[in-house]
Design goal:
By secondary structure, the protein is an alpha+beta fold. The protein has two helices and eight strands; from the N terminus they run βββββαβαββ. The relative contact order is 0.31.
Amino acid sequence: MKHALDFTVYGRAQQRGSKVPVRKRDGSVLLKSGNVILKDSNDKSVEWMRAVSDVAGRCWEGRPLLTAPVVLSATFYFKRPKLHYRTAKGREHELKDSAPFYHAQSPDVAKLVRSLEDALTGVVWSDDKLVYMYRVIRRAWTTESERTEVLITWIE
């Protein structure tokens, strides 16, 4: 039987950054048990991932974590910057001819997906290695709220 979980997370999606060492005030690297302590270089990703976990957790309603292979579908919506719009009085809502159709810029779509997968681990599924297929992952412009629409499907 096929199952699905879908939800929307409002706010600007954040990518997982590179891992960087945590440094002390003197510039030396912080160690724990002889290992370098690493943190994500994008501090904003922590808050966004918490929002994803909260929304998914409420939708998942405390069911046991998935252990079946899943298909992860996500659409990331970003607001267009003002420089995409005309500046002539009365035409401020019109797009310039040079405005890009696709959102082919930062944040990186692969890092957005990684952030999403990590936020769902331990909330919906036991491990993000269960994701065997990605479907319709795209980044689209919006005039509405920035958001991420997620659909997870699996077969038991």
